[in-house]
């Protein structure tokens, strides 16, 4: 069965990659933001009822973690209220809702990877709004996959990789937080793994009952863990191997040389930001591996693939997830 798919957020990091990969799975509709605005319930209903998808993939979100502290109602409207509506419509159609959530639903007090069933306790407005979105999806009774990921980056969009490359062209010394730990995860690995899961679900012609049993929450991050400081160092160690003419790299550096010579570790207390972040938000991927036989590559491999991509399109093909062991 080739499903009709409705994708939101096609201009985002994950949505951009999904817009390419999901088109191979079924009939894909990916409306512009203005045509499916999560702040406008009428446009959400209109887009869903107009396309009648079997699969709704929500890659749209309010993701500005610091800005959310002063923009609570908008973050909540996009990340939670709109989710209730998407889930209600999915339930009405009998569609599967795939939704992305975050490691920031946790407070970071644990010191081993978080499981899907661990207690949540978000520290910031963004995390609270994402948790409320998860809860709305679960409460709706719609079949769903809630995919929690973290520290997402790509060679386009707004993210840590591109920020570090830009800063490295502006400053000789960079100070990076060294006491927050997570798993930097490349957007195209998330899209590739999601597409693999969905392809298996839809090409194996599973019954509604079998599909329902898969419904639930899954962590999906790169293997391994690191700090922002070590991630930053890894980026700058490898960056000189990227040709300055590669379009995404030239855009990130604006064609300027990398001049950063000293990378200094600092604590979260020294780097004041509006939103508090968990000190430890590594997620365990064992459920993903057990149920779907998927394991994303280690974060260092993902970074290498992302940097090695000649342009934004290549990244999708160079870094596919490997089967879990
Ligand atoms: N980024 C991370 O580090 C991170 C970490 C953990 C989890 N996640 C989750 O992973 C998912 C994908 O994140 P991402 O980094 O790919 O996001 P992103 O790059 O910030 O993209 C967000 C997308 O949402 C769209 N959008 C925002 N407001 C909208 C609205 N009112 N109506 C319709 N579309 C709207 C944006 O469209 P415009 O470009 O037109 O505004 C954009 O396409 C999200 O659920 C996010 O919470 C991300």
Which class best fits the helix and strand makeup?
Answer: alpha/beta
Number of strands: 14
Q: What is the topology, as strand order, of the major beta sheet?
A: 2-1-3-4-5-10
C-alpha termini separation: 28 Å
Bound small molecules, by name, code or SMILES, are: NADP nicotinamide-adenine-dinucleotide phosphate
Q: Treating each run of at least 4 consecutive H or I residues as one helix, how many helices?
A: 12
Low-confidence stretches: 314-325
- Provide the helix percentage: 40-55%
pLDDT average, as an integer?
Answer: 93
Report Rg.
19 Å
Order of helices and strands: EHEHEHEHEEHEEEHHEEHHEHEHHE
- General shape: globular
- Proportion of residues in β-strands: 15-25%
Largest sheet: 6 strands, parallel
Write the layout of secondary structure elements.
Elements: E1 4-8, H1 13-21, E2 27-29, H2 41-51, E3 55-58, H3 72-93, E4 96-102, H4 125-140, E5 143-149, E6 152-153, H5 160-170, E7 173-177, E8 181-182, E9 185-186, H6 187-203, H7 208-214, E10 216-219, E11 226-227, H8 228-238, H9 247-253, E12 262-266, H10 286-292, E13 294-295, H11 299-308, H12 314-318, E14 322-323
Parallel strand pairs: 1-2, 1-3, 3-4, 4-5, 5-10, 6-9, 7-12
Antiparallel strand pairs: 8-11, 13-14
Helix pairs in contact: 1-6, 2-3, 3-4
The structure holds NADP nicotinamide-adenine-dinucleotide phosphate.
NADP nicotinamide-adenine-dinucleotide phosphate is lined by residues 8-9, 11-15, 33, 36-39, 59-63, 78, 100, 102-103, 130, 149-152, 157, 187.
Word description of this protein:
This protein has 325 residues and is of the alpha/beta class. The chain has 12 helices and 14 strands. The chain has helices at residues 13-21, 41-51, 72-93, 125-140, 160-170, 187-203, 208-214, 228-238, 247-253, 286-292, 299-308, 314-318; strands at 4-8, 27-29, 55-58, 96-102, 143-149, 152-153, 173-177, 181-182, 185-186, 216-219, 226-227, 262-266, 294-295, 322-323. A 6-stranded parallel β-sheet has the order 2-1-3-4-5-10, with helices on both faces. Strand 3, helix 3 and strand 4 form a beta-alpha-beta unit. Helix 2 packs parallel to helix 3. The two termini are 28 Å apart. Mean pLDDT is 93; it is low at 314-325. The structure holds NADP nicotinamide-adenine-dinucleotide phosphate.
């Amino acid at each position: 069965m080739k499903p009709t798919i409705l994708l939101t957020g096609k201009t985002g990091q994950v949505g951009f990659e999904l817009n390419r990969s999901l088109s191979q799975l079924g009939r894909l509709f990916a409306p512009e933001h203005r045509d499916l605005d999560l702040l406008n319930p009428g446009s959400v209903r209109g887009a869903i009822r107009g396309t009648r998808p079997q699969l709704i993939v929500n890659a749209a979100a309010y993701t500005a973690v610091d800005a959310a502290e002063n923009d609570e109602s908008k973050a909540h409207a996009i990340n939670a209220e709109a989710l209730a509506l998407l889930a209600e419509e999915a339930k009405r159609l009998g569609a599967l809702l795939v939704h992305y959530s975050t490691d920031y639903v946790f407070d970071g007090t644990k010191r081993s990877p978080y499981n899907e069933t661990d207690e949540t306790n978000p520290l910031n407005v963004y995390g609270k709004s994402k948790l409320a979105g998860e809860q709305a999806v679960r409460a709706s009774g719609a079949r769903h996959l809630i995919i929690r990921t973290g520290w997402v980056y790509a060679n386009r969009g707004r993210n840590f990789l591109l920020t570090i490359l830009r800063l490295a062209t502006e400053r000789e010394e960079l100070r990076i937080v060294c006491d927050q730990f997570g798993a930097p995860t490349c957007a195209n690995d998330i899209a590739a793994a999601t597409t693999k899961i969905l392809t298996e679900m839809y090409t194996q012609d599973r019954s509604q009952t079998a599909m329902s049993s898969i419904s639930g929450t899954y962590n999906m991050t790169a293997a391994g863990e690191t700090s922002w400081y070590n991630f930053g160092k890894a980026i700058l160690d490898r960056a000189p191997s990227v040709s300055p003419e590669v379009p995404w790299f030239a855009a990130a550096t604006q064609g300027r040389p990398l001049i950063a010579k000293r990378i200094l570790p600092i604590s979260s207390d020294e780097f004041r930001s509006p939103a508090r972040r968990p000190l430890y938000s590594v997620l365990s991927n064992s459920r993903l591996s057990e149920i779907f036989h998927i394991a994303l590559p280690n974060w260092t491999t993902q970074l290498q693939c992302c940097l090695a991509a000649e342009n934004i399109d290549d990244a999708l093909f160079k870094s596919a997830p490997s089967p879990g062991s």
